[in-house]
Amino acid sequence: MTSNDEESSQSLSSNVNFDTMSIDDLHEYIADMTTEIEKVKLIIKKKLAAQDTADSFFKK
C-alpha cells in the first residue's frame, strides 16, 4: 500500500462521527461504502490479471 492509499483509507473512516449520524444516514453510509468496496474489488481483479499476464510473459 502506498502512502496515498493509506491516507485515503484512513480518511474514509476517521472523519466520520457515527454518534451524530441518524439511522438513515448510517444506512446511506453503508451503501456508499459497499459501492466503494465493489470498486476496489474490481481494481484488485484487474491488477491480478495484469500481474498474471506479466508473470506468464517473463516465465517464457
Automatic annotation (TrEMBL):
InterPro entries reported in the protein's UniProt record: DUF1192
Top-level taxon of the source organism: Bacteria
Identification of the protein by name: DUF1192 domain-containing protein
